[in-house]
Write a structure and sequence with these properties.
heterodimer; A: alpha/beta; Urease, subunit C, domain 1; 2 domains; six-stranded parallel sheet; 9 helices; 26% strand; B: alpha/beta; seven-stranded parallel sheet; three-stranded antiparallel sheet; 10 strands; globular; Glucosamine-6-phosphate deaminase (chain B)
């Protein structure tokens, strides 16, 4: 197959033609691109490492819900994703992990690649639940081992200040799981200690939806945000839906973290369904004017898609090549998926084609057109 | 020089807008050279559409307009400053303090000051141009030196006739003097994008692109620029003789 247009490479943009089968054979600058003149923009497929739901489906629903949310986000350019669990009673969480494992091993015909699961909770602070329901528990090693036994957990969100968190983070990190601090009241010192634990165990540390469900930066208390911003290795997820994070905070994170920043959707079941009633973690959610809220008014996950996150990054004056790294290259590197995230010869042909308005026109997964 | 011909005015202006968006998406802190005129109104409409669709941001950009009437206050609705605010600057997220329109009086006025501002901003990355029916770019009327810099000029009668619409059709109300970037100033931009639409421009476009280089037609100076793209609609391209070659060039995206 060949696609011509404006091709977004890791560090620059060029007009040209991309030649691919299941993997990319080559990219030729200049050839045949004239008629498109920026009206067809070709990027690597988006990689969403934190997504609960969409189009009525939720990871906690099991196989059918995962299938549904995955196909919805595929239409918005996501070619790799980590279905993300909610803080629910432990048996339900385990059921959800097993469902993700089943979908991953079976594969989604004509769908995106399910690269594993993001275990968000229940190892979080009961005082920083955000929209998570109150089933937070301490991360005992037997539970960690049970989760690891599914061999599907790729990212875990954990509050570093919890009793037992240190041992749990070490075990997750040793098992190749990315350990992301989040839904936490941890201090700067606790955060740095957590990062060190993860690093010493050979892992990569991060922060879950930076700025949300954590304390802020204060004069004498930099908190988790300060820890992430001044660390040299820690990564951070960010929800760029214009509701969860102020654009100025996005620019700060973008300019300081560089390629350690990853955009996520954190989308919930109601994404793509419009205004109305929905559900998150067993609780009623009302969606009005494009915002999902719990009855108490708290934000209940996002209705974001990755292509919309790209547009928000671009309108915040992030160059397109840079924005593409936030959505594809950085998450691929964070997860250790070295076969994708960048348009380059030899990489998987996971490709999104956008029009001049940055709306999704085509989606290709491993060289096959799926949307 | 490369020529891309689009079926109609809207498509041509959308192409121009997407090229400007591409420039900003490649370098958000780009310095844009901007122009006024009826074709530009459509280009700016298309650019605002792209901004509202989330496809381009202006918050880090800087702009320099080509020209401005003299003896008209910037806040007069007929000034190019007011026109630019209305057409573009008030409709996107550009920082107004980083938008520049030359002016002839008051602090920071005059050609040398304007040139210094452009220089201090790092030079123009992409210069958007229209063409007058007499072939001018900016207000560089016939016989403007190819070495001209930003300066005050006397408008040609043809230009004042052409622009009378903005002055309720009253040609005498059109100012006689203006300040404009010079041709040499324009040629210093890293890239140039000339957008031409409408049957009324077919004759001058053919002379500008295919005729001999002459100071009588300021736009012929664009042949001395290494990266100049002309986007025209079918109406404006109607008198071009080498159409077949231009289409082949566009299809292959090859520079001559």
């Amino acid at each position: 197959m060949q696609l011509s247009g404006r091709i977004v490479l890791e560090d620059r943009i060029c007009d040209g033609t991309i030649d691919f089968g299941e993997t990319i054979a080559g990219i030729e600058a200049g050839a045949g691109a004239g008629e498109y003149r920026g009206e067809r923009i070709i990027l690597p497929g988006f990689i969403d490492i934190h997504v609960h739901g969409g189009d009525g489906g939720d990871t906690m629903d099991g196989v059918a819900g995962i299938d549904r949310l995955a196909r919805y986000h595929l239409r918005h350019g996501t070619t790799t994703l980590l279905p993300t669990t909610m803080t629910r009673p432990w048996p339900e969480v385990m059921d959800a992990l097993r469902a993700v494992a089943e979908v991953r091993s079976r594969g989604l015909e004509g769908g995106p690649d399910i690269a594993g699961a993001h275990l968000e909770g229940p190892f979080i602070s009961p005082q920083r639940l955000g929209a998570q329901p109150p089933f937070a528990i301490e991360p005992s090693l037997p539970l960690v081992r049970e989760a690891l036994a599914t061999e599907v957990v790729r990212v875990v969100t954990i509050a570093p200040e919890l009793a037992g968190a240190d041992a749990a983070m070490r075990l997750f990190a040793q098992s190749g799981v990315r350990v992301s601090a989040g839904h936490t009241r941890c201090s700067f010192e606790q955060a740095m200690q957590g990062f060190a634990t993860v690093r010493d165990a050979g892992g990569i540390a991060g922060a879950t939806h930076l700025f949300n469900a954590m304390g802020g930066v204060e004069g004498r208390a930099p908190g988790l945000v300060g820890a992430v911003l001044q660390d040299r290795d820690a990564h951070a997820e960010l929800i760029l839906d214009t509701r969860h994070v102020h654009p100025a905070n996005f620019r700060i994170a973008r300019d300081i973290l560089g390629d350690r920043l990853l955009l996520i959707t954190d989308a919930m079941r109601g994404a793509g369904l419009g205004d109305g009633e929905s559900e998150l973690g067993g609780r009623a959610v009302t969606i009005r004017d494009g915002i999902a809220r719990l009855p108490d008014g708290a934000l209940a996950g996002s209705l974001l898609t990755m292509d919309a996150a790209l547009r928000h990054a671009v309108t915040a004056s992030t160059g397109l090549a840079h924005a593409s790294r936030l959505l594809s290259g950085n998450p691929a590197r964070y997860l250790g998926l070295h076969d994708r995230g960048v348009l380059r010869a030899g990489m998987r042909a996971d490709i999104v084609v956008l029009d001049a308005g940055l709306q999704v026109r085509e989606v290709w997964v491993a060289g096959r057109q799926v949307a | 020089m490369q020529i891309v011909i689009r079926p109609d005015r809207n498509t041509a202006c959308a192409t121009a807008a997407s090229l400007i968006a591409s420039q900003l998406n490649t370098k958000p802190a780009s310095v844009l050279g901007l122009a006024t005129g009826r074709t530009m109104e459509s280009v700016y409409d298309a650019l605002v559409d792209l901004h509202e669709a989330g496809a381009v941001g202006f918050s880090a950009a800087t702009s320099f307009n080509l020209d401005e009437y003299l003896a008209i206050a910037p806040d007069d609705p007929r000034s190019y400053r007011s026109t630019m605010d209305r057409l573009l600057f008030d409709r996107n997220d550009i920082d107004l303090a980083r938008t520049h329109v030359p002016h002839g009086s008051g602090p920071g006025s005059g050609g040398a000051a304007y040139e210094a501002l452009i220089r201090d901003a790092g030079g123009i990355d992409l210069q958007l141009l229209g063409i007058g029916e007499n072939g001018h770019i900016g207000f560089n009327e016939p016989l403007s030196s190819f070495a001209s810099r930003t300066r005050e000029v006397t408008l040609a009668p043809a230009t004042r006739r052409q622009n009378a619409a903005l002055f309720d059709g009253d040609e005498d109300a059109v100012p006689k003097r203006a300040i404009t970037m010079g041709i040499a100033t324009v040629l210093e931009a890293r890239r140039i994008l000339l957008v031409v639409t409408g049957r009324a421009k077919a004759g001058i476009l053919a002379r500008a692109v295919e005729g001999p280089v002459t100071a009588m037609i300021g736009a012929t100076a664009l042949h001395f620029h290494p990266d100049c793209l002309v986007v025209a609609d079918e109406d404006a391209a109607g008198n071009l003789a080498e159409r077949e070659y231009y289409d082949a060039m566009a299809a292959g995206s090859q520079e001559p």
